[in-house]
Amino acid sequence: MEKVRRERPLIHHITNIVTCGDCANITSSIGALPVMAYALEEVEEMVQAASAAVINIGTLLPDRLEAMIKMGKKAGENGIPVVLDPVGAGATAYRSKAALRLLKAIEPAIIKGNGAEIGFLAGVKGVKISGIQSIDAGDPLESVKRLLSALDYRAVVAVTGPVDVIADGKRVARVFNGHSFLPLVVGSGCMSASLMAAFAAVEKDYFLAAAAALAAMGVAGEIAAEKEVTGPAEYKVRFLDTLFHLNPQEFSSRARIEIR
């Protein structure tokens, strides 16, 4: 966290237009610099100036998908980590094909999703998703392991939920921080991908970056709820301000991460 605030890395997003502002805000709150550049004509140039990138398929369009692939490949050529958020993968045929295409084309450093999204990418039968909401996801760790074994490149896979699960094929982390208000904030999943990218921009062990980012999200979520909150909108503002003021000592004392 100190390194992010000191270096202020640029994080390039091609993300969900519903939560674009929220992703920019959380990137800024942790101390990094957000940029949202979608045009085919500039995505390669912009990502080369960045230290990490986010690809989020929440509001998918054909030209945006091509921009994602173009940006992701250029990031790979330059050693820039990409966080892939396959929002709603498994919900429609078009979205599902796009997510699988991105998985192969850009070789993301971190793949982050809810249980159903990761389960679909891993080929787990019986997972259910309604729009972007995970309904029936099965065992998240099993999905993570199956997806990692199916990839022909190294990556970190993270499943968000009541207990976040992160793995890289050698280590497994569980993050127990969080609050019941967080899922009520539209875009909290998208925001966590931005936080992962900010941490991955300064920490080359992407497993640790992903686990630390989700712990920071959860700790800030817990602190934000300690005073009476009337609803999700008030909570979101308090959450972002809490993250902005969160110091390393408080973070490390409150983070509940199990690594095996």
| Helical amount | 40-55%
Largest sheet entry: 9 strands, mixed
CATH architecture: 3-Layer(aba) Sandwich
CATH fold category name: UDP-N-acetylmuramoyl-L-alanine:D-glutamate ligase
How many DSSP E strands?
Answer: 11
What fraction strand? 15-25%
CATH class: Alpha Beta
What does this structure look like?
This protein has 260 residues and is an alpha/beta fold. It has a single domain, classed as 3-Layer(aba) Sandwich (UDP-N-acetylmuramoyl-L-alanine:D-glutamate ligase). It contains eleven helices and eleven strands. It has a nine-stranded mixed β-sheet with strand order 2-1-3-4-5-8-9-10-11, sandwiched between helices. Helix 5 links the parallel strand 4 (82-85) and strand 5. The radius of gyration is 17 Å and the shape is globular. The two termini are 23 Å apart. The mean pLDDT is 93.
Question: How do the helices and strands line up, and which of them pair or pack?
Answer:
Blueprint: H1 2-7, E1 10-14, H2 20-30, E2 33-36, H3 43-48, E3 52-56, H4 62-77, E4 82-85, H5 93-106, E5 110-114, H6 115-121, E6 128-130, E7 133-136, H7 140-150, E8 156-160, E9 164-167, E10 172-175, H8 188-200, H9 206-224, H10 232-245, H11 248-254, E11 257-259
Parallel strand pairs: 1-2, 1-3, 3-4, 4-5, 5-8
Antiparallel strand pairs: 6-7, 8-9, 9-10, 10-11
Helix pairs in contact: 2-8, 2-10, 4-5, 6-7, 8-9, 9-10
